[in-house]
Specification:
Chitobiase, domain 2, TIM Barrel, Jelly Rolls, 4 domains, eight-stranded mixed beta sheet, 16 helices, about 25% helix, globular
Length: about 750
């Protein structure tokens, strides 16, 4: 089980000189062992171009910071010619001066990104008037020329348009600070085109696309348009669409005599929106079903496939000098005369279609994808030998990320492109890890919790101008709670306790089906979880009964000899509540062990399914039960001082359940005297696992190291604060969610 709450180092200096881990790791980094203290007023020297403007914008956006004409503290930009590597830079932090040196604009962008990452790093110490950094000299450059995050925008997301734009910009900001120089904005049909109607409910506006493109370029990140072509048809531009007898979209009619002319108009539209980018993701993957429907010969399939993508590649190159990027996998499909052996995520051997390879334009960049670990990625060798420029793509399977990066780089691949394939904001840890492997392709990545690092960087701490006046909010029992470490939130120091909650929670291991049913009888509010060797737990939706879409079910022998369910499940036998034994996938009526239990989840490919697979893959888990012990109220209340301007609440939990959609763990209500209704914000069950992209009015949610969540309430101007109310959900109680501290100032 996870540690109840993280105990923070009381001296932040201990963090600093246990050597801060910066990612990606610089090629050369020398610490003097000294600290350098700066005030929040800077003077710029030299010409850093757009990168300097990026840095200026970031500095002045922080409370109390400024860039002025006269200051003893200098950030200097030096243009030097003796930097051999593309995008190379030097960064020196010394007393009174920070120097960024580079040969060109790209190097300045990478140097400024590194400086901003250091300023955002948890080892950096802030007070009301100063920031303390290590004295350090860095010389650095990347391995891969193209380090590109492929961000999926083709699906509807449960955010407003403004939240979606802000969330995407924030992802870009973090990527730019961690060495990325490109981002595929994979819109599919999810934007407002002049040439087709989007099938998504909230398509991206052209105004928001242009704003995102501007934002990327201002941070040295090349924005790359992307959509599917021919396959994944709901993610294609909706032109010349073919539907089946039920009205489902199945393909684009690429044989229509008007198709290429109309498709070229969409390409032109995207090139204009993205300000003539050097690359264009054109999809082309997993078109087996499309070709099967056509029922053509292999020769005709090859003619259609290569003819379409050669047209796109040559059109983009001849008109814009833009390289089209095509997924590789259809070259090893049986429909084109190739063969791939493997499980869909990895491959043991590939035999591509030589006829298709010979016919494809070398203006195309072929994007090889493989999501699993392997000693050899044969497809990379074949494509490189055939004379193609190659990019390689990974996904969230951690073991495969560094192996593919190293293998591809050593064989001349020029791009490393991690893919999100669903929501982007909850794939940040993978993106930072893949960015490390793209920057340093041939060296081992440092031991670092990339998920936690991403969360910390997503929710940078706000500024507290009245931190010196901070005092405890008068929640009953909080002042008497035992002290349990400390934390720093920007310039605010916090003393943590072991926490208070409206109800006590019992969390116990479950080792047999008999225990499961006893707990169900004795504690109607009991919830069951799968716990293991990951950051998260998985809540079990119910015990026995039907397994519906996305549901995770625990089956016991009381269900009968089998699950009596269809084949759309993935299942594991569990003995003693811990040992994972037999594994089943997509088979109906799976047998339930008479002396054990069966963990079963709907096969969906969604994050919930994939995260359970990851949890179970370690071979050992622990089934847990959680239930409240005594008490009836789920609410904590406290009065606030009328002079209060800001409130900070810090929460921690014992369990961190992952759910496909975030659920309320506690709802914070803040009431002002002038308002009839309080302002509210939810702290979700997954606060330690992923960021929250929603706007929250005068609230701000901040992740703290060790899996803690801070909620900051800024009292609205001209309002008199009255009280706070914390309403814990049943899931929050089961998580053993506690309020660790609450201060007002």
């Amino acid at each position: 089980m996870k540690k109840l709450f993280a105990v923070f180092a009381l001296s932040m200096g201990l963090w600093l000189y246990a050597a801060p881990v910066y990612t990606p790791v610089p090629k050369s980094m020398e610490f003097s062992g000294k600290e350098v203290v700066f005030q929040y007023q800077w003077r710029f020297e030299g010409d850093g171009g757009p990168a300097a403007e990026w840095l200026r914008e970031e500095l002045v956006s922080r409370g109390g910071w400024s860039v002025v004409k006269k200051s003893l503290q200098v950030i200097e930009f030096q243009k030097i010619i003796d930097i051999e590597h593309a995008e190379g830079y030097r960064l020196a932090v010394s007393s009174g001066r920070i120097t960024v040196s580079a040969a060109d604009e790209s190097g300045f962008f990478r140097g400024v990104g590194r400086l901003l990452a250091i300023l955002r790093h948890p080892s950096t110490i802030y007070t009301d008037t100063t920031v303390t950094l290590p004295e350090v000299a860095i010389a650095d450059w990347p391995d891969y020329p193209q380090r590109i995050a492929d961000l999926t925008m083709t699906f509807w997301e449960p955010f407003t348009d403004e939240e979606r734009l802000a969330s995407t910009k924030h992802i870009i900001e973090i990527l730019a600070e961690h060495g990325y120089n490109g981002a595929v904005i994979n819109l599919g049909s999810n934007y407002q085109s002049k040439y087709f109607a989007s099938i998504r409910p909230t398509p991206w506006s052209q105004e928001h696309i242009r704003e995102l493109v501007r934002f990327c370029k201002a941070r040295g990140v090349t924005p790359i348009p992307g959509f599917a072509t021919w396959s994944h048809t709901t993610s294609c531009p909706q032109i010349h669409i073919i539907k089946d007898e039920k009205g489902n979209i199945v393909s684009q009619d690429i044989q229509h005599p008007q198709f290429r002319e109309d498709y070229a108009k969409v390409l032109d539209e995207m090139m204009g929106l993205f300000d003539n980018p050097p690359f264009f993701r054109v999809g082309g993957d997993e078109a087996q079903g499309v070709l099967d429907r056509l029922k053509l010969s292999t020769k005709e399939n090859i003619r259609l496939y290569t003819g379409l993508f050669n047209f796109i590649a040559d059109y983009l190159w001849e008109k814009y000098q833009c390289r089209a990027v095509l997924w590789h996998d259809m070259l090893v499909s049986s429909q084109l005369g190739g063969r791939r052996e493997g499980d869909g995520f990895t491959e043991d051997r590939v035999v591509p279609s030589q006829a298709a390879i010979d016919a494809l334009s070398r203006n195309l960049i072929l994007n090889y994808w493989n999501y699993g670990p392997a000693e050899r990625y044969e497809g990379v060798d074949i494509l490189r030998a055939a004379g193609f420029d190659v990019w390689s793509s990974c996904w969230t399977i951690q073991a495969g990320i560094p192996m593919l990066a190293k293998y591809s780089y050593e064989r001349g691949a020029t791009g490393y492109v991690p893919t999100t394939w669903c929501w982007n904001h909850n794939k940040g840890g993978m993106l930072l890890y893949a960015g490390e492997c793209a920057w340093n392709a041939t060296t081992e990545a440092p031991a670092c919790d990339y998920e936690e690092l991403y969360l910390q960087e997503w929710n940078s701490a706000p500024w507290f101008p009245k931190s010196a006046t901070a005092k405890l909010v008068a929640f009953s029992g909080l002042a008497e709670a035992a002290k349990d470490g400390a934390a720093r939130l920007g310039n605010l120091e916090l003393t943590l306790t072991d926490g208070i909650s409206p109800r006590n929670t019992v969390i116990t291991s479950v080792n047999s089906s008999e225990e499961v049913h006893r707990l169900l009888q004795e504690h109607p509010e009991v919830k069951f979880f799968v716990d293991g060797q990951e950051r998260y737990d998985m809540e079990i939706d119910h015990v026995n009964g039907p397994r519906d879409y996305l549901e995770l079910v625990l089956y016991t022998p009381e269900q009968g000899p089998t699950t009596n369910q269809n084949k759309w499940g993935e299942e594991w036998s569990v003995f003693g509540g811990q040992r994972v034994a037999d594994h089943y996938r997509t088979q109906p009526n799976t047998a339930i062990p008479p002396d054990g239990m069966l963990v079963s989840i709907n096969v969906s490919g969604a994050d919930k399914h994939n995260n359970l697979r990851r949890l179970m893959s370690h071979g050992t888990i622990q089934l847990l039960a959680a239930y409240p012990d005594g008490g009836e109220s789920n609410v904590l209340r406290a009065e606030l001082s009328p002079e209060t301007h800001q409130v900070v609440l810090v929460f921690g939990a014992r369990l961190w359940p992952f759910t496909e959609q975030p659920l309320d763990a506690v709802v914070v209500s803040a009431k002002c005297a002038e308002d009839s209704e309080p302002e509210k914000v939810s702290v979700y069950n997954d606060f330690a696992l992923m960021p929250d992209p929603h706007f929250t009015g005068n609230f701000r949610k901040v992740f703290l190291p060790g899996g803690l969540s801070a909620v900051v309430w800024q009292v609205p101007e001209g309002r008199t604060p009255e009280n706070l109310e914390l309403s814990f959900s049943a899931l929050g109680i089961a998580m053993d969610l506690k309020l660790l501290t609450a201060v007002e100032m």
